[in-house]
Design brief:
Layout (H helix, E strand, L loop, with lengths): L2 H34 L5 H44 L22 E3 L17 E15 L9 E2 L2 E11 L6 E13 L11 E14 L14 E8 L21 E9 L5 E12 L7 E2 L3 E14 L2 E12 L21 E14 L4 E14 L2 E15 L7 E9 L9 E2 L23 E10 L6 E10 L23 E15 L2 E12 L1 H10 L6 E12 L2
Parallel strand pairs: 15-17
Antiparallel strand pairs: 1-2, 2-3, 2-4, 2-22, 4-5, 5-6, 6-7, 7-8, 8-9, 9-10, 9-11, 11-12, 12-13, 13-14, 14-15, 15-16, 16-18, 18-19, 19-20, 20-21, 21-22
Helix pairs in contact: 1-2
């Protein structure tokens, strides 16, 4: 029954009730008049009393019918709301900066959902995905501590991506390709593969896709099996260990095999892979790093509880020192890099939203063991974040987080406690991009606002310390004091960011970060460049253009 029909039925019933009540009002004086007359009217009085009784009984019946109707309507509304609000087991992550890039990426659209559908013959093409994105970012960096000298740098970073995929029509066979061109202009520094990677393939793979090979979950979602072979770029868990690295001008990618069981909507999901990382080369075609293999298994268990998603994971990074050719920055590797490595990483992440309280949380712990160039690997890391979203038109979210990744305590003890961040990204740690997931103890408070449906604003304050005073600050141009006498205090940082989609084809992202050096940074940076400023400023204006 439609809402309009239900409404009409309610109106009709109310009219009946009103008519019956009106009849009762008219009958009452007649009854009183009958009582005043002689006994000849007793039969008429009895009939009128009987009629009044029938009216009362009918009113009670109508009231019961209305109550029953309300219960049915409430049940239907509740079922409808449940279906709309929770069509899957997946719970979106609220943690700051930890939302994974989608597969396919966010700039990609299904062909018949783009303006191309207006071309004759393309309106029903739902088996092709297309994407074209061009991003340009201006940066103002005064005294960038990622560099080993104090200068003003004002680069323009340009990144262009093209994506095309064929799906569903030829199942189980599918194919995907993603091209990217990354360049930097107007910089005082030499080219590097953080910003340069000219016209290369970051994804190019064939896929076998079996839609419901593992049946369906209780909500009716398919549990597919996907097997991909080729070059691919993707993100797992909280992006800290495996990420495309969307902020950086270039992208992490791998080559090999990846199998996915289930999907994001389903009650459980698992990823297993055997991959070689791609070495990003500035002027020539990227190459697979034949010295390294990266293996992994990651799970998502969503059905166990409505307030927590569990993500157990295991990674193995294995390096053959005799095959090492390139360093991670794409340059020829130094002799000291020709070492055997076997880094095991096991961990568990749990995150969720606690009912309607507005509270959310994100917990993660990782342990590393194995060997690193003859040293025993014995490291660990954890991240804790808690947030609260208030019931307000601006949807303010207040959060606090603590992150830790161990550092090497003694370079001569035969053991390395320095956590290896594998292929993760650094952006959530620092908007200056100063902090990476090694030898760090970071605390942060943050506020996120949505003043309008489109406008997003967030700002925060951060405190950074070394986990070990004798190990390096990798994000700060590898500054280090092996004696530990410079202390642990790296510094503090304030940042603010504003995002606004000007239209469906144009996005704007503006941000500012101010860093105040601590004792460790002041003392060690002065040894490299005497007289260097203590603080740094970073301003950026970023515009993204989308074809679809």
């Amino acid at each position: 029954m439609t809402a309009l029909q239900l409404h009409k039925k309610k109106i009709s019933r109310l009219r009946v009730i009103a008519s019956l009540l009106a009849g009762a009002v008219l009958i009452t004086p007649l009854i009183a008049l009958a009582q005043a007359n002689d006994s000849q009217l007793s039969q008429q009085q009895a009939e009128e009393l009987d009629q009044k009784r029938r009216i009362s009984e009918r009113l009670q019946e109508i009231e019961k019918e209305n109550a029953s109707l309300k219960i049915k309507e409430s049940s239907k509304a509740e079922a409808s709301n449940t279906t709309a609000a929770n069509p899957s087991y997946y719970v979106p992550i609220r943690s700051y900066g930890l939302q994974r890039e989608t597969e396919p990426p966010r700039y990609v659209r299904q062909l018949n959902k783009t303006w191309l559908k207006n071309i004759e013959g393309l309106d029903n093409v739902d088996w092709v995905d297309l994407g074209l994105e061009s991003r340009i970012r201006y940066e103002y960096r005064d005294n960038d501590f990622r560099r080993n000298k104090d200068v003003l740098d004002e680069p323009f970073l340009l990144r262009t991506r093209l994506y095309a995929a064929i799906k569903s029509k030829f199942d189980p066979f599918r194919a995907t390709i993603e091209l990217q061109d990354s360049r930097r202009f107007n910089s005082v520094f030499a080219p590097d593969n953080r910003d340069f990677n000219k016209a290369d393939v970051i994804q190019g793979y064939g896929e076998l896709y079996f839609k419901d090979a593992l049946g369906k979950d209780d909500l009716g979602n398919d549990r597919p099996i996907s097997v991909k072979a080729g070059r691919m770029a993707f993100e797992l868990t909280d992006r800290r260990l495996v990420a495309r690295n969307e902020w950086r001008n270039t992208t992490n990618s791998f080559q090999g095999l990846r199998a996915t069981l289930g999907q994001q909507k389903s009650d459980w999901q698992a990823d297993v892979f055997a991959l070689q990382p791609m070495v990003r080369l500035i002027e020539t075609t990227d190459q697979a790093d034949h010295a390294q293999w990266f293996y992994g298994a990651v799970g998502d268990w969503r059905k166990w509880s409505k307030i927590i998603t569990l993500q157990p994971y295991y990674y193995l990074l294995r390096q053959n020192g005799s095959k090492v050719q390139y360093a991670s920055d794409g340059t020829i590797a130094a002799a000291s890099a020709h070492i055997n490595r076997e880094i095991n990483t096991g961990g568990l992440r749990g995150y969720g939203v606690i009912g309607d309280t507005g509270l959310d949380y994100d917990l993660n712990y990782a342990k590393q063991w194995g060997s690193d160039g003859g040293l025993n690997q014995d490291a660990y890391a954890y991240n804790l974040e808690a947030g609260y979203t208030a019931e307000h038109a601006w949807k303010p979210r207040f959060s606090g987080s603590v992150g830790f990744a161990s550092g090497d305590k003694n370079p001569k003890d035969g053991t390395s406690q320095r956590f290896d961040r594998l292929f993760g990204f650094a952006r959530p740690w620092s908007n200056n991009d100063y902090i990476q997931m090694e030898n760090i103890h970071a605390s942060k408070v943050r506020v996120e606002l949505n003043p309008t449906s489109k406008l997003k604003i967030d700002f925060g304050y951060n405190w950074y310390e070394l986990a070990s005073a004798t190990d390096r600050w990798n994000g700060g141009a590898n500054l280090r004091d092996t004696t530990g006498k410079s202390g642990k205090n790296i510094g503090e940082e304030f940042d603010i960011r504003v995002r606004y989609p000007i239209s469906k084809y144009i996005g704007l992202n503006v941000g500012y970060a101010y860093f105040m050096a601590g004792d460790f940074t002041k003392k060690t940076s002065q040894l490299v460049q005497p007289g260097r400023k203590d603080n740094s400023s970073f301003l950026y204006v970023e515009t993204s253009l989308y074809a679809f």
